[in-house]
Amino acid sequence: MFGVFEAVDYKQWFALAEFVDNSIQSALDLWHAHGRRGPLHVSIRRTGGDGGTITVTDDAGGIPSHRFMQAFEVGTPPPDRSGLSVYGMGMKSAAAWFAGRVRITTTAIGEPVERTVEFDFPAIIANGLQDLEVVERPAPAEDHRTSIVMSNLRNPIRTKTHGKVRDHLRAIYRHFIRSGALVLSYDGETLTYEEPEVLVEPYYRDGAEAKEWRKEIDFTLSSGEHVRGFAALSKVGRTAGAGFSLFRQNRVITGLDDDPWRPSEIFGAGNSFRSQRVFGELHLDDVKVTYSKNGFVWQASEEELISRLREELDAEPLPLLRQAEGYRARKATSQQLQAAKKAMNAMDSAFAKAVEQDLPERIEDSDGPGPVAPPMAEPTLVTVPQPIAAPVDERVYQTMANGTSWEIVLRLTDQGDEWISLTEIPKTVDPAPKRLVVEVNVSSAFMRNFSGRDAVETESVLRVAAGVALTIVTARDHGVKNSMYVLHTLNQLMSGSLGIRS
């Protein structure tokens, strides 16, 4: 049987979770009877790089004498299968999957003995061994700990997946971590779980009083399987982190960040607005799990769960799905505004040079504009000054081209939806400079999602925006038809899918 475990389709985080499950269940089973209280400490540590060892230690209840032999029998389920231990296979299968050799040392709470047993899986398989030597030595009765050392690794935790393993473990055990019941460390780092911030805004249809977009979920399927938890809308819209995590006994079974439970019947396809904001946690304690605990075995149809959940999500007075579709964040964060101001300072001389030197060269270029696109209905350049709120920042630049004086205003705003806009200011006196206002909207979807909070990142985006604007100006001055249509289409695309971070 141990030979079969080598081929189990485990992921490192789910294999490690088998050991953490055993630790939690040991504490739940044994602490109360002995007056022990939490928190439980579980440590996972790698040594020797990719080909070294993996050690899991805990201060749970240990493995008591009456359960010791059973704990190492394959396929012998625990007396109570309603907890985290279900099939009596998890620790053994995970150990055999990870390593060729495993040493387990444990002392049970209330027992004055420490027991050690070693598994050499290749030797066990080759020789058909049925019995293993157990080494005992005295230990204080108040001790309670277990250490599992895995070596000769078959499936080591590679350095490139180290961060992924850590983040998935914190997500799998988030309930125990945030309640303070579990202190879980990975390579010396104590894992914490950061909750997504919930959207607090008025309903987009009525603009009434702001409310928190979070609701409790509680219903029972036709099979009798109970579903409880919560659903919410995240303050920041992005696909990473959206979707549901499905729990059994407070432990995530499916729905991690790289594989969220996001049925299309609820979330729609692709980068829908629902798929960027709807998230939640559902506890399905009555639903059976696969033996590797990375999926559910549905007794009722999953379709029934999806249908009922969809109804609950959009039920009044808090219709989450409708709000997710209709709500649009309009404002950049304060950090993004500060980064944009710093970026303006950083690119000031570059934009001045572009206006004073590069733009006249392009406008005076005798080669002409090249091929002209066929006529189409073109959005016009705005020629009427638009009322604006106070800009985030503004700079004015002068240049001469073809004997015409130009004044170009580069303005940062945080109003509206468009990323880039061009406004021509009519002359009030003659002679007067040809005056254009180039506005870059920090609160546009593209800027909010991609400019970041760092001035260097923001400067890159601002330079591209300024370059696009000057290109449109140059093209129009050369008589290129439909040049404003290019800007119009660009703004539409950048406020849609291209402006959303997946």
The CATH C-level class name of the largest domain: Alpha Beta
Global morphology: elongated
Sheet with most strands: strand arrangement: 5-4-3-6-2-1-7-8
Query: How many beta-strand runs?
Result: 21
Largest sheet: 8 strands, mixed
Brief overview:
This protein is of the alpha+beta class. The chain is built from 15 helices and 21 strands. It is elongated, with a radius of gyration of 31 Å.
Descriptive report:
- This protein has 15 helices and 21 strands.
- The protein has 502 residues and is an alpha+beta fold.
- The chain folds into three domains: 2-190, 2-Layer Sandwich (Heat Shock Protein 90); 200-326, Ribosomal Protein S5, domain 2, CATH 3.30.230; 334-499, no CATH class.
- It has an eight-stranded mixed β-sheet with strand order 5-4-3-6-2-1-7-8.
- Strand 3 and strand 4 (113-120) form a beta hairpin.
- The longest helix has 30 residues, at 334-363.
- It is elongated.
- Keywords: Kinase, Transferase.
- Pfam families: HATPase_c_3.
